[in-house]
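FW: tagging you since you asked about this chain on Friday. Here's the raw sequence from the shared folder, copied in full. Didn't touch anything.
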Amino acid sequence: MMYTWLSQLSRSSKRFIMIVCDAGLVLFCTWAAFAIRMGEWFPVQFESMWWILIVMPMVTIPIFASCMLYRSVIRYLGPRFSISLLQGVTVSAIAMALVAFVTQAALFPRTVPLIFWMLTIMLVGGSRLLVRWYFRQSLQSQSVPVLIYGGGDAGARLVSAIVNSGEYMPMGIIDDDPELWGDNIRGVKVYPPDRIDQLLELGTRDIFLALPSVSRSRRLGIIDQLRDYDVRVSTIPDLEELVAGSARFDEIRPILIEDLLGREPVKPDAELLGGCTRAKSVLVTGAGGSIGSELCRQIIRLGPVRLVLMDQSEIALYEIENELRSSAKSHAIDIEIVALLGDVCESDYMKKVIGLFEIQTIYHAAAYKHVPIVEQNIVQGVRNNILGTWSVANAAIENRVESFVLISTDKAVRPTNVMGATKRLAELILQGLSKVQSTTCFCMVRFGNVLDSSGSVVPLFRDQIQAGGPVTVTHSNVIRYFMTIPEAAQLVIQAGSLARGGDVFVLDMGEPVKIIDLARSMIRLAGRSERTDDNPDGDIAIEITGLRPGEKLYEELLIGQNTVGTSHNQILRANEADLPWDVIESLIQDLTASCENMECDLIRGRMESFVDGYTPALNIVDRIWLRREQIESRETLSFHRSRIESEVRERMHHPDAGESAS
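HL: got it, structure written out here
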C-alpha cells in the first residue's frame, strides 16, 4: 500500500518529502551532537543557543540541494550519491563551526561539529538506504526470478542493470570457472552449472546469457546444455553492439537463430568487398527482398557514388529507401540513392535505367523463390526468373556494364521443382553470354537457405510457437543448409570481385541442419516443451504435414564434384557444364512463345530437356493451366452430350429413317 502510494507521487512531491525528512534529521542530529558531547538530555548550551536548532536545518538543506542530493532517484542510488552526501554533510559541519566562531559562543564544544558530521551521514544516508531497501523488497515480490549464465564483467553489469530496473530478480549466477564458485557478485552468489536443477526449484524459468564475447561454437555448447531444462533462454547483445553503443546490457533478447548453427562468421576481405562497389554506380534488382535489401545495406557502406534500388513492390521499395536514407544521414555517407519501381522483364525500360544512371555493377536479386507458389504459377515463374534475367543481362551488355552478379540457389542443382529449374536456366543464360561477349563479366552465386528471410521456416516456426502450436514440418528427415542474411550478402559482394566471366560460385554453408531438430530447439529456447506420446502434457506439438509440391528432402550445391578454391576460404568456383549459345537462343524463343500461350506442358518439357537432373516430382499444378483444362474438359463433355442428345432427338422424330436408308 505504502509502496503504491509513494510510487504514484510526482517527482516534486517526493522531493518535498525528502527535504522535510532531512530537515527533521538535521535538527535531531544537532541536538544529539550536543547531548552526546555533554552527556545530558538537555545541554545547558541550548539556554542561550536554542536558535542553532533552527539555523542548522536552514543552512544544511540548501547545501544538500547544491550537492544534488535531491536529484538522486532513491531506488537507483549508487557511488555518486555517497560522494554527494559526504560533500554536503562536510560543508554543513564546517558551517556549524563557522556559526559558533562568528557568534563567539563560549559554551560551544569544538567536538560537536565532528559528532554532528558522523550522525548526519549515518542518519541521512541510512534513511535513503532504508527506503531503497523497502522499494527493492516491494519490487522483488513483483519481479520475475531469473538465473544469469556468465560471472564476468558482463554478468556483473547485467545484475546491476536488472536489479535497478525492478523487472527481474537474479536468483543466482552460473559460471564454468571453479574459481568463481561461491563468490558473490553484486550480492548474487555464483554457482557451478550442475546446480541449475536446484536453482530452478526457486521458481525461475528464465536464464539470461551474459556472454557477449564468447565464440558462437561455445555459445552453442552452452545452449545445448540448457536444452535439457524447462527454461526460456535469452541473451544480452553481442560485444560489437555494446562497444558501438547501439545496445545496452539490459536489452534482453531471445537467442538468435544463427547461434543454433554454431558456425563462426568469417571476417570479410575489405579489398574484395570494394572491388565492384567502391566509387561505382550500382544497381540492385529485387532491392526490397530479404537478400536484396541486405545487399543494399552493406553496399551503401562500401563507398559507391550511386545506388539504384529496383523492385516491383511499392511498400518494400519505400521501406528500404527510407532505411537507407536514414542510415546515410546518420553516418554522414555522401551517396545518391535512387528508388525505381520496375519489372525486370521490360527490356526497353531496363536499357533506359541502366544507361541513364550509368550503371557499372548489377546485383540481380529479383526472382520468385517460393517453391510451392512458383509451382502453381509456372508461366510467371519462368517469365520473371528466366526471361527477366535475359532482359537485364542484354541491357547490361548494351550499356557496357562492367560486372553482373546473379543471386542463385542450391535448388538449381538437380531440381525437382519449377523454381529450381528456372534458376538453373538463368545460370545457363549467363554462362552462355560469357562465351559470346566480353563486355560484361557475368557470374552467379549459389547458396542455400537464408535464416529469417521472408518465406523461410524460421519466422513461420516463431509465429507458430507464439500462437501455441502446432509447429508444422513437412518431413521428419528434411535437411537444409542455412546461412545468415548478412553473411550471405557479404559473400555475394565478395564473389563478384573474384569473377572472371561465367563463374558459378558456391558458398561454404557449413553442416546441414535437420529441420525437425531446428523446430525442437526453437520450442525449447522459447521455454516450452514438445508435446509427444511420451509427454502428452507438453506445450507444443510438432505436426508432420508431408512434402509440398516440388520439395526435396535435401538440397545440393554442386551438380558435379569439380570445384576449385578461391582467395576466399568460404567461396568455391564450380566448373559446370553449359549449353551452346544457339541452343540457348532457341530455348529462350520457345519459352517466350510458350509463356504467351500459357503452355505449361511445353515449358516443363523444354526445362526437362535442358536442365541437367530436372525431374518434376508431380503433375502440373499451375492454377491457370488446371482451370483451363477443367473448362476445356467441361466444354468437350458438353459438346459430346449435346451431340448425343441431338442424335437421339433426330431418331425419335424419324424412327424409320434408319430402315429407309437401308
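FW: The mean pLDDT is 82.
HL: agreed, and Residues 623-653 form the longest helix (31 residues).
FW: great, closing this out.
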